[in-house]
Amino acid sequence: MKPRSKRFAWILLGLVGVSAATALVLNAFQSNLVFFFTPTQIANKEAPIGHAFRVGGLVEQGSLHRHGTEVSFVVSDTVKSIPVTYVGILPDLFKEGKGVVAEGQLDGQGLFHAKQVLAKHDENYMPPEAAEALKQAGAANAKISKSIVTESGSK
Amino acid sequence: MIPEFGNFALMLCLLLAFMQVVIPIAGAQVGKVSWMQIARPTARVQFALILFAFGCLIYAFLSNDFSVRYVAMTSSRLLPIQYKVAAVWGGHEGSILLWLLMLTFWMTAVSIFSKHLPEATLARILGVMGFISLGFLLFILLTSNPFDRLIPAADDGQDLNPLLQDPGMVFHPPMLYMGYVGFSVAFAFAIAALLGGDLDAAWARWSRPWTTIAWVFLTVGICLGSAWAYYTLGWGGWWFWDPVENASFMPWLMGTALMHSLAVTEKRGGFKFWTVLLAIFAFSLSLLGTFLVRSGVLTSVHAFASDPKRGVFILIFLVVVIGGSLALFAWRAPKVGLGGRFSMISRESMLLSNNVLFAAAAGSVLLGTLYPLFLDSLGLGKISVGPPYFDTVFVPVMAPALFLMGIGPLARWKEASLPELAIRLRWAAAVSVVTALVLTWFTEHFSLVVAFGLLLAVWIIVTAGLNLWSRIRPLPDSHFHPLQRLRGLPSSYLGMLVAHLGVAVFIIGITMVKGYEVEKDVQMDFGDSVEIGPYAFKLKGVSAGNGPNYQFQRGDVDVMRNGQFIRTMTPEKRVYLVQRNPMTNAAIDTGFLRDLYVSLGEQVGDATWTVRVYYKPFVDWIWGGCLMMALGGILALADKRYRISKRNDRSLLQAEELA
After folding, report:
1. A109: closest CA of chain B, how far (Å)
2. Chain A to chain B, count of Cβ pairs less than 8 Å apart?
3. Which residues contact B291 (CB under 8 A, 6 or more apart)?
4. Would you call B299 and A88 a contact, using CB atoms and an 8 Å cutoff?
5. Residue B543: other Cβ atoms inside 10 A
6. What ipTM describes this predicted complex?
7. Cβ of A123 and B579 within 8 Å?
8. CA distances from B258 to B64, B528, B533, B632 (A)
9. Torsion sign across C-alpha atoms B627, B630, B636, B637
10. Which of B608, B394, B200 has its CA nearest to residue A24?
């Protein structure tokens, strides 16, 4: 091979490799992104059904029930809540009234089937997704109260 | 008083670091030897000062000085003494100080073991390292001083996070940091070479052992972290593609590429650009890792605190270091010149492919780690990128690299012939395919993934054997016995073989665990049994007791194999007294071919618990493989070549000076 055609072959090979890698990465990315929804968003039917996503919030007091290794509890962002079932052992720091993030799928009846449950790592720490859900719910509350105020104000 | 001494030492060190950046580099540019010579003593005194400050902090921990904020945050009276020492790096401030201690340690090591380096080169290297030290000192003093006082003092500390109260905490962070920070040496060598404009084979030879030793530490550090996660986190995984793990894995991938690239630069003078770029990237990723872990943008066991000031500081530092070095690269690289030519099929081209694949792998990990952060910071929503992404991307990228690993070491430099390679390797290929098929035949159920993994592993082993045999087989015109010839082989060559075999062992481990592990979460009354294959686990009871700073509930689980009693396993559930957090301590029966893993879930009734049981075939091969890779690195370091070349360099240098 002439040096020029050799160089050309190298470049071609490089391009093929790079585009293959890019295609691979983007494809994997597309199909494996896990989105996050708050209980309010789920109540507003923004979350997909039959597709994996994460939900976060607080475990409602008194909502935890066990049947063997089958567990059910309710995740709430103080405005809306969603029932969750999970089969397996919950993480050590899972507690009622504390933050939690669950990953899984929503079924047609509005029940969330968690495949994985994540809790905080220590006492002072809240999973950021759970914190986000509470914050959004808080903002929504504020907005509602504000709109009520402005409505009454405009009268 | 002692903490104030520590604080003072840090400030003094800041001054020295500033001197170490400005004077030696300026001296090297204008050729003033007396200015250059300042680098050595300042580096050593910096090490002494940071060591002293570190000692002050250890003293504060051991003497329960809860008037120091950091001590009050991460220690407590009841904490056992070994964890008091480990708690020094159990939080943000202390771990940054540990980082700095490692950096000054490496600086001192460079100043001692580089007598053969030209004075100007050494001055530049230490100047660059001084700059990094300067950045970290400013960071500590401005945003995260471990010696800050807490007024009024606390009665007792808040204790070390129970997850961190483990022997793993004593060894994992120092090892990891030695590796992380060790890449700063290769980085400094590269920047110094760019500054001085003398990138040549000698530069690669000096840089190579430093890179290898940093890589060895990083490998061991990651391996320890993985083993620690496996036995403490209680869910039996060994790698989670957690952003923090990725943060340590990306420099490892780059460092691995760098090591291989340096080999070409040293032996053939090629890949100079590429090697310099890899050195920059490896260290940049180490810095990025520190940033990701310590700035609080990530949430995991490792993320301690979130203070936006810190994040901004590290981000700026990151931009200065990475941007500055890349700009320098762009400015200087055209003068470097190309290395020796090589053909499309040669050892160089295969090492280049290895490099590209490793860089691509690091890039894909980077994308998966940063993309969620990126979206979040732009307010575009929260997403997470989980293990499935990394699994689907990583395997296809690494598989060709592993395949080439078998061929590369057998190929000739400069120009290899494909037909010749094919002839040499046809039996190896046949043996690999047959062995992989036979091995999968014996397993319980056939799986394509397992067959493929085993094929790669066997391929690496067989080609390594072939390679060794081609070096030691009896020759008609040689009187030496193969064993004698084996002893004559350079230890860097043996190191390469051992490290590559380590990769094979590692692959067998992950393949078998992924393919054949069994997990059971069950509810058990006392006296119940659960069976996995030939093993039966019988929960006899759970009893309570007290540890040094925790209360525990300990399960008694009898393990039987085919009805034969093997041993009693005692998984624990602990509640630490200060933080009142429960923690699971799994019980593991380690074996050459399998681990049995039992952990307690929750107490459901008086005599009823949920229990998690795993059967994990070949899981210890994962860490065994990593340790073999590290051993390979150590063997390569022991090579005679480095010692001889050192003497040659010095005599060369003396000759030059005389002339």
Report:
1. 24
2. 96
3. B311, B314, B315, B318
4. no
5. 11
6. 0.74
7. yes
8. 44, 54, 45, 16
9. negative
10. B394
The Cβ-side half-sphere exposure at B493, using a 13 Å CA radius, reads: 17
User: pLDDT value at position B659?
Assistant: 36
Q: Is B59:B147 a contact under the CB 8 Å cutoff?
A: no
Instruction: Kindly determine whether residue B381 and residue A128, on different chains, have CB atoms separated by under 8 Å.
Output: no
User: What is the maximum span of chain A, computed from C-alpha positions, in angstroms?
Assistant: 86
Is 90 exceeded by the pLDDT of residue A13? no
End-to-end CA distance of chain A: 86
Q: Inter-chain contact B161–A93, Cβ cutoff 8 Å? A: no
Q: Does B521 touch chain A (CB under 8 A)?
A: yes
Distance (Å) from the alpha carbon of B179 to chain A's nearest alpha carbon: 26
CA distance linking residue A95 with residue A86, whole number of Å: 15
pLDDT at B338 over 70: no
Q: Which two tokens stand for residue B479?
A: 């009187």
pTM of the model: 0.89
Give the pair of three-digit tokens for residue B137: 């000192």
Of B344, B385, B396, the CB nearest to A24: B396
B613: three-class secondary structure by DSSP: strand
pLDDT tier at A124, thresholds 50, 70, 90: very low
Q: Is A139 on the interface with B (CB under 8 A)?
A: no
Round the CA-based radius of gyration of chain B to a whole number and report it: 27
The alpha-carbon gap from A134 to the nearest alpha carbon of chain B, in Å, equals: 14
> For the segment B374-427, what is each residue's pLDDT rounded down to a tens digit?
777 777 777 778 788 888 888 888 999 999 998 988 888 877 788 888 888 888
Contacts of A121 in chain B (CB under 8 A): 161, 163, 300-301
Is the model's pLDDT at B216 over the cut of 50?
yes
pLDDT of residue B235: 67
- What burial class does residue A146 get, using C-beta atoms within 10 Å of its C-beta: 0-12 exposed, 13-18 middle, 19+ buried? exposed
Among B350, B367, B389, most A C-beta atoms within 10 A, so best to mutate, is: B389
Distance linking the first and last C-alpha atoms of chain B = 56
How far apart, in whole angstroms, are the C-alpha atoms of residue B244 and residue B492? 32
Categorize the per-residue pLDDT at A5 as very low, low, confident or very high, splitting at 50, 70 and 90. confident
Identify the residue among B297, B365, B380, B382 best suited for mutation to test binding to A, counting A beta carbons within 10 A and taking the highest: B382
Give SS3 for B546: strand
